[in-house]
Amino acid sequence: MTDAATSPGASDAETLAPLAADPAAGTDAGGSTAGALAAAELALAENQQGRPFWARLDNPFTVGLLLTLGGLVALLLGIALANISTILVYIGLAAFAALGLDPVIKWLGKHGVKRGWAIAIIFLSFAIIAAGLLWLVVPTLVTQIGQFISGIPTMVSNFEKSDFYGWLEGIFGPGLTTLVNDVETFLTDPGNIATISGGLLKVGAGIATAISGALIVVVLTLYFVASLPAIKDSLMQFAPARRRPGVRAMTDQITDSVGGYLMGMVVLAFFNSVVATILHAVLQLPYPLLMGVLAFSITIIPLIGPVLYWITATVIALFTSPVAALIFAICYLIYIQIEAYVLTPKVMNRAIEIPGSLVVIGALIGGTLLGFIGALIAIPVTASILLIIKQVFFKKQDAKV
User: Fold this and answer.
1) How far apart are CA 105 and CA 103, in angstroms?
2) How far apart are CA 183 and CA 316, in angstroms?
3) pLDDT tens digits for range 218-239
4) Rounded CA separation 200/359 (Å)
5) Distance between CA 244 and CA 248 in Å, rounded?
6) What's 389's DSSP letter?
7) Rounded to whole angstroms, how far apart are CA atoms 380 and 260?
8) Where are the beta strands (DSSP E) in 3-101?
9) Could you give the angle at the alpha carbon of 215 between the alpha carbons of 213 and 220, nearest 5°?
């Protein structure tokens, strides 16, 4: 007589089945409970594998602690960046100056001048130009600034006697005379100027800070120019080896474009200053040298700078002679058109083309964040971002067919 487990009619499943049966076996509740537990365990495992670490934390205290620590770290980083913002501005200016000088160094290198000698020639040339400006231009410039401040009452008096002022008074009424006199009284009082500037001590501290900052930027520029190839090679190490040739080509294109743009801005600003000085001298407007320096300082901002200087110089010229101011406004407006359609395309032929709307937006954002310096460096930054978008993002999108 054989055992029931090994009887001929028994199947393999019955042979392997355990002798002790589950109490809930054979009922619907037992089967559904086992299936639900298995599904829950599987879903939990998949959810834990698919979610990030912070989303898998089951302790609310731990989550809150980590979020608080993250917020404190972000706050400390923000405070640190705010404290070193001046240093970051110096570094940014030096980097952009180095990129602007790099095309000149490469041009000298093509003519057989080694990089070290090219850097020495450029900085020596700048030192000679700076010494010449200090010796020839600065004394005259200081004299003209003093004459401008002391001549404000005479300029206002002549302006009130002009026909143009009579026309304005007919529109705005006698209140215009009171307003002009109040402005004259305010500007001719040295105490008010000192109050606006924060006092003589603060003015002196500001001048000392500007001089020391300029020296720091010059020294950093020298180091950046000398080590620019090594800096590029070091940055290449962050890219994967298979992508380094493409990254290097894009980096060279960006640096060449930014360098060409910066050199182009300096050249165009120099042309603006020369034209402004000549127009003031020919029209016998006062302070031609001062207005030439002001033109260079303002027009170094592309697209916006020439328009700002055109408005500023025309308003100042109105106080001397409305006819001369009108002639200046017309002549300088003609030059702006020549610069926009003739000089700028030739000077900026190596730089990336930027739509005019983005130039305005970039200059406004940079000026709001960092003032004049921000408006100056916003254009090259915009050019770099556009180039990266064209070389990386657009190519990836074009490859998706």
Assistant:
1) 5
2) 14
3) 889 888 888 888 888 888 888 8
4) 37
5) 6
6) I
7) 10
8) none
9) 95
